[in-house]
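Dissemination and training. As part of the outreach component of the grant, students in the summer workshop were shown how a complex can be specified as a set of sequence lines and then modelled as a single object. The example used during the hands-on session is reproduced here so that future cohorts can follow it. Participants entered these lines:
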Amino acid sequence: MAYSDKVVDHFNNPRNMGSFKKDEDGVGTGMVGAPECGDVMKLQIKVQDDTIVDAKFKTFGCGSAIASSSLATEWLKGKTIEEAQKIKNTDIVQELNLPPVKIHCSVLAEDAIKAALSDYQKKAAKTEAAQ
Amino acid sequence: MKLPIFLDNHSTTPMDPRVLDAMLPYFVEKFGNAASRNHAFGWDAEEAVDKSRKQIAKLINADPKEIVFTSGATESDNLALKGVLEMYREKGTHLITSSTEHRAVLDTAKSLEAKGLATVTYLQVDKHGMVNPDDVRNAITDKTVLISVMLANNEIGTINPIREIGKIAKEKGVLFHCDATQGVGKIPVDVQALGIDLMSFSAHKMYGPKGVGALYVRKKNPRVRLVAQMDGGGHERGMRSGTLPVPLIVGFGKACELCEQEMATETARLTAMRNRLEAAIMAGLEESYLNGHPTNRLPGNLNISFAYVEGESLLMGMKDIALSSGSACTSATLEPSYVLRALGVGVELAHSSIRFGLGRFNTEEEIDYTIKKVIEIVTKLREMSPLYEMAKEGVDLKSVQWAAH
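and obtained this result:
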């Protein structure tokens, strides 16, 4: 199977690969997938004043899974929480030109975004409640 | 050194130029039909086929008359299983095989089962992928007509105790078929000493052309009979009709002759190269696990799981080296390798497996390059892997509640 140039580029030069400390202020972490299924994505966002100022990922999975999560971090940076909620897996499929058998990679990336946002919101609500 | 490097010699092998040279006259100049008995064109073709039959029979210590030409090992497997079960159905319908056979055997067995033509016992293998001869013995009933166990596995290279199984089959009066596609030409195969009654093998796995294979069918002690699966002109002692592909058969014969002449030196060379590849990878990368038997396997085979990284991404990172993986993402079924699963390898490690298949045309320089690339890409992908990060932090990955999807 041939990969699109964009998938190859993200795979060879992953954007924002790495980790934030989970307990750091303003950091939301989403981890989705399972090792038995062959893919696990960890996506993290760092939020200041409702805007995502930084994002990082680590992914265990095929090239398309790595590319999907790398692309997601690129798109997340600079977006507000509300804007980030609107990223759809179909946008990722389109941008990376993913074949049908790889659509689940984009679904996983969307799930990871949602999970990171929800983790951030939970943490923010807790901090607010404590203040 | 030329890129890409071909290290996928279990899938197919490049044809040896000496094989091509032998074949060339039989396309345009000597194009006759080997079944034409009344003119020189036919005689030339028949003579070439006879010579080839001898070369092939010699490699496996058979009589030339016991070689039935087919289109390849898949057809040979189909013919052996379906042909024997149909011929001996009055004796019984029980077939014994193993869970790590090639799909050509497993799917044929399943098809016979589905049509109500056979009841099948699928024997489990041990953690190295080996069939236990005692399990074969215990599975035999008075309705068993055929045992089908492969010589060497195509993924992990493990070599089965064929001689022991052959002995049991003789003792119990059950026919024994062996899918020897990966073994013939690579390791010594003697159908007499091994007690094999039917054996499938293929030219393109041994530096011959694609599109031709053979089924060895024993002629005496016992005389094996089978029902042809294709009707026609009654070629190949009535077992396989169809005009013989003379150029392919000539190439098959030459390939067998070369394998026989060079087996001893080639085995030593491949084993040394494979061992060097294995040792360097194991020394350079922690948590790499060998799949298959540590010693009793094909000389050119090496199958390793690299924990925390996924197989398809490994292949993608080494796109100038042709390899294969047991990862689900690389299979048509989207399931990880059933062979590795049968060994008890965890699903996650099955996803992380890479098969290296060394062959006649690989060089030391190519192995050096591969060692360097493998270490580089596994290290890079582990840096990228959340699982590796968690393991380094001391998290037991088995204790994590994963959301399966």
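Residues 263 and 383 of chain B are 42 Å apart (CA to CA). Students were then asked to discuss how this feature might be tested experimentally.
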